[in-house]
Design brief:
With 342 residues, the protein is α/β, with parallel strands linked by helices. 20% of the residues lie in helices and 28% in strands. It contains seven helices and 17 strands. It has helices at 46-49, 138-145, 186-194, 233-245, 254-263, 304-313, 315-327, and strands at 27-31, 38-42, 55-59, 61-63, 67-72, 78-88, 91-97, 107-110, 115-122, 128-134, 171-174, 198-204, 227-231, 249-252, 274-278, 293-297, 338-341. The strands form three sheets. A nine-stranded mixed sheet has the order 2-1-17-16-14-3-12-13-15. Helix 6 packs across helix 7 (315-327).
């Protein structure tokens, strides 16, 4: 399947640079994947589309303030470090800028010595393995020194760190937010519960690979980055009950979709409680086993995310919905508007 099938023109002014004041006031496009009907709403209207008995699955990952600014001990040169993945203890896989002059053995000083990093190895994609040294609790130091790792298409400075977190963020470990969840407020979640909808939480720590466009001309040749996920025994049981009752399972975001489709057994169609790394790549032709509907944002051209959405709703219907969203001046990408596919 050719990559060009997932390309579209997006006016730059539609790339949302800042979050809306009220999360639930985002626009929401609804797409009925059976009839192709498209409607326009605000996200707070999602309550009208959810039915008593539905199960809503949210990703409770929390974004690390993973962008650090320091100086190279040897020369005093400014260095930017982006934490990607914790390996073991205090060793991290990172991206560094500028990288050419940062070699194995070099040291980086952050926060006047509050945190020190030593380059231990190089990675295949030009990153660095860095071991950090510090006194105290690493996450507290990171919270003090780090900035939110906003995607490259967001040029504005984020005034409130919490606006790049969901209101239910709990498990620290993501390099990017699960953005479909940014539209929920605590009040909206209460309304949803009161209507008789079950809310369950899974965890998938989002990697920066989620923003990278697919580079191969034939999308089947693309290899997905891997991300850590976790599904508890209790949540697996509740999901299995929903399945056996014939109730809808609705995933919030592509991260929830990928986790649920990873942990469902191919033969028994039962959810298995486990944790590990997933590199599942979902594109048109994929047969969904876990979910019935999803809430998502509007994604980058040629990204694995628009391919996943196209697998659920059909490529032609998704591209038509995107064209209509552009005509109606929807806001795109991380701080943008929402789409409900049912």
């Amino acid at each position: 399947m050719n990559i060009e099938l997932f390309d579209f023109y997006l006016p730059e002014e539609l790339i949302a640079q800042t979050p809306l004041k009220n999360r639930a006031e985002s626009k929401m496009l609804t797409l009925n994947r059976k009839t192709g009907e498209i409607r326009h709403h605000h996200f707070k209207d999602i309550v009208d589309y959810l039915q008593p008995g539905d199960t809503l699955v949210l990703n409770d990952t929390k974004v690390l303030p993973a962008r650090l600014f320091g100086i190279k001990k040897e020369t005093g040169a400014k260095i930017e470090v982006l934490l990607l993945k914790q390996l073991e203890n205090d060793r991290w896989e990172t991206l560094v800028k500028p990288g050419k002059k940062l070699r194995v053995g070099h040291q980086i000083i952050f926060g006047h010595g509050l945190l020190t990093g030593i380059v231990e190895d190089m990675t295949e994609v030009g990153g660095r393995i860095i071991r950090f040294q510090y006194q105290g609790v690493f996450n507290e130091i990171l919270d003090q020194l780090g900035q939110m790792p906003l995607p490259p298409y967001i040029k504005e400075q984020l005034e409130d760190k919490d606006r790049y977190q969901t209101v239910y963020a709990k498990n620290l470990g993501s390099a990017a937010a699960p953005t479909a969840g940014l539209h929920f407020t605590k009040e909206l979640l209460e309304q949803i519960k009161e209507k008789g909808i079950e809310i369950l939480y899974i965890t998938l720590h989002v990697g920066l690979g989620t923003f990278r466009p697919v580079q191969t001309e034939n999308i089947e040749e693309h290899h997905m980055h891997s991300e850590f996920y976790s599904l508890s025994e209790e949540v697996a049981e509740k999901l299995n009950q929903a399945k056996s009752d014939g109730r809808r399972i609705i995933a919030v975001g592509t991260t929830s979709v990928r986790t649920l489709e990873t942990v469902i057994d191919q033969e028994s169609r039962r959810f298995i409680a486990k944790q590990g790394w997933t590199d599942i790549f979902i594109y048109p032709g994929y047969q969904f086993k876990a979910i019935d509907a999803m809430i998502t944002n509007f994604h980058l051209p040629k990204s694995s995310l628009i391919m996943l959405v196209s697998a659920l709703a059909g490529r032609e219907q998704v591209m038509k919905a995107y064209r209509e969203a552009i005509q109606h001046h929807y806001r795109f990408f991380s701080f943008g508007d929402a789409m409900f596919i049912y």
